[in-house]
Amino acid sequence: MGTPANLTDKARAKGLAVRRRNAAANANLRRASLVINSLRKGGLSLRQIAEQLNESGFKTSRGCEFAAESVRRCAKEEKPAPSNN
User: Which of 5, 77, 79, 82 has its CA at 20 to 30 Å from residue 39's CA atom?
Assistant: First the structure.
């Protein structure tokens, strides 16, 4: 997958920006984010939220079921709707 020496801070930041942009463009993740934030306010744990999302048919951006860690990542940052520009 490349040389670790090529993974500069600039390259890592660029990769992170692309992943965030892709996540923001994913309508399923935007809906999941709204559900996550609502359930967090209701006091559910990350694991309980993951179970609720999976039972409701939500999938991660890679098509996998949610786990506590993927819920944490999704809730960590509100994903704005992509601009039409």
Answer: 82
